[in-house]
């Protein structure tokens, strides 16, 4: 039976959904706790107004899986190698890059697949987690992936942690590779000055904000300074769940009950007390993007609708998505 659900009040695109994470298969820290519930997660997200998502690819195999899921569920994906996993490319850098290249060719618009690959990444630098991969190796493979943006004329999906100087230097030195399509520095948790330096590099660059960006007062201050025309929103699910100890909490308690119920990405059910069709305690899901938007609007002192509309336009334009502003939300 096909039924029509009430239209959600706001429409979102979650640009960072780690749908390949084992938690959506019900596996936590290597232990199976409940059945795969990705389909239900996506249904709840639709009901909350998340029109589409971009599934993050963090390695060759993960990018393959993300693309398969994106094609299956009619959403989008990225293809690339995360800085903390750059070691994977060491054994055969040329072969690995060629394999990423082939996957992008197949998955992007005009390729043999369904045209679901919309960005190169996630790639970048992460000096918070050098125990996974030293900075020299991270830099090498960040640089090699930048060439993919140019080859395929796709935007970059970027990650930068505690590596601001090197990150800026590399982007600046290779701007001819990415300026045409730009990119988004996702899950941004840097300072206001760092945010400004990124945005000053080129007007094709954007900053992606999620629950982790809104943890501290400094984070809120940084978000206040992002021009609306350079902002994107995301959840980074299953990570970056807003909690009561975050600075964002003071704003989230003002969320009207109807919206709080709609944007309710977690529940009191721990993974081993899983209830089919319900969210899981501590596991973020795309339906929570409305909470991120609410806090951003409060911090900026504007209506939520103003934030949502600007972010929608930025996202559709930069990624070249074919999403309609008005559509009926129904079950799938
Ligand atoms: Zn990231």
Bound molecules: zinc ion
Q: Identify low-pLDDT runs.
A: 328-332
Radius of gyration, in Å, reads 19 Å
Number of helices: 12
Percent of residues in beta strands: 5-15%
Query: Can you tell me the CATH class?
Result: Alpha Beta
The CATH topology annotation reads as TIM Barrel
Number of domains: 1
Architecture, according to CATH? Alpha-Beta Barrel
Average predicted local confidence, pLDDT = 95
Could you give the count of β-strands? 10
Q: Order of strands across the widest beta sheet?
A: 1-4-5-6-7-8-9-10
Looking at CATH, the homologous superfamily is: Metal-dependent hydrolases
Helix amount: 25-40%
Describe the structure concisely.
The protein is α/β, with parallel strands linked by helices and 332 residues long. The protein has helices at 38-47, 60-73, 93-107, 135-152, 164-173, 175-178, 192-201, 217-224, 249-252, 257-262, 289-300, 304-319, and strands at 12-17, 27-28, 31-32, 50-55, 76-79, 117-126, 156-161, 183-185, 205-209, 231-233.
